[in-house]
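ingest -> validate -> predict -> emit
validate: passed (alphabet ok, no gaps, 349 aa)
predict: started
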Amino acid sequence: MKFLIVAAKTGGHVFPASSVAKELIKNNHEVVFLGIGSEIEKTAYKDINSRSYNLSIDGFRGGNLITKFKTLFLVCINIFKVNRIINIEKIDAMIGFGGFITVPAAISSWLKRKPIFIHEQNAILGSANKFISNFSKINFLGFPIKGVNKSILSGNPIRDSFAIHESRNKNNDFINIYITGGSQGAEYINNEIPKIFRNFSEEIKIKHQCGINNFKKVKDIYLLNGVEAEVSEFYENPAEQIFWSDFVISRGGALSLSEITSLRRGVFVIPLPTSIDNHQVENAKIIEDIKMGVMHQQHKSLKELRENVYEIIRNKTFLDWKKNSNLSHIKSKEIIISNIHKFFNNESI
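emit:
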């Protein structure tokens, strides 16, 4: 069978799509990617032998009236473009991973009577997935969400490097902290976190992934506060940095939280306050529920931020987080593909 894999723009959509695509190929299927041609897509798909198609489209929510009319016009245009791709590639089914690009792809697939499957990474359905879930065959969920029909809790498909579970003994008495704002970096984390370690009494080591073009600024803030830290715009293998750490300071993206906790590391979560439908807060609540982290809202003072991080270090709360495990994402891609196989087997009976 040949599947149209639809994902774009962010690693939270694209990396799960890549993981599922690789597993489909292992199961003797073919895949075709549909995205917007971003660098993150090229990085995620570079080792996969498949064709890719790109659409030009922006999100609907948050724009002004003119932008929304333009987006709706592009949806109509792109429906015809996807129709052509389905015909040329002889697509059998579509799997969407959220984001507005999935809307024209799903409408086209529905019009062509091709089965549609979606995956939602967050603890709340995104707008596109909420719409498509009404006519998709199976709605796969990364985190539990109440009231979603035809749903299966699959977990989030994580990269193979994050599916390792052997414990590692530390060789020093330092407390290792990995700080990340995601592939693009996070302005609040870059600007504020380095300040809280000024005159810290505990023995700590810091690695800070700051995002492209942010190295000098972040490094200077650490130096200004007399804090020694390794700063990098991008780590080729973030799993290694998470394994090195005792705990992680991170935004509340679903994939990041899934990958960190899959490696048995806890998270000090600082949700992005402007995330759509406040989904990063909902993701952070899941992490608190499984006792693998705590949430800090960024509207609170720098003093509170420092005190909260210091309390984790002083009380060694991260040791309790390490005792817990979150295995719900390890077999996610296998669960997704197994249920897709079941759907087609049942449909053909």
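Residues 2-157+330-347 form a domain with the Rossmann fold fold (CATH 3.40.50.2000).
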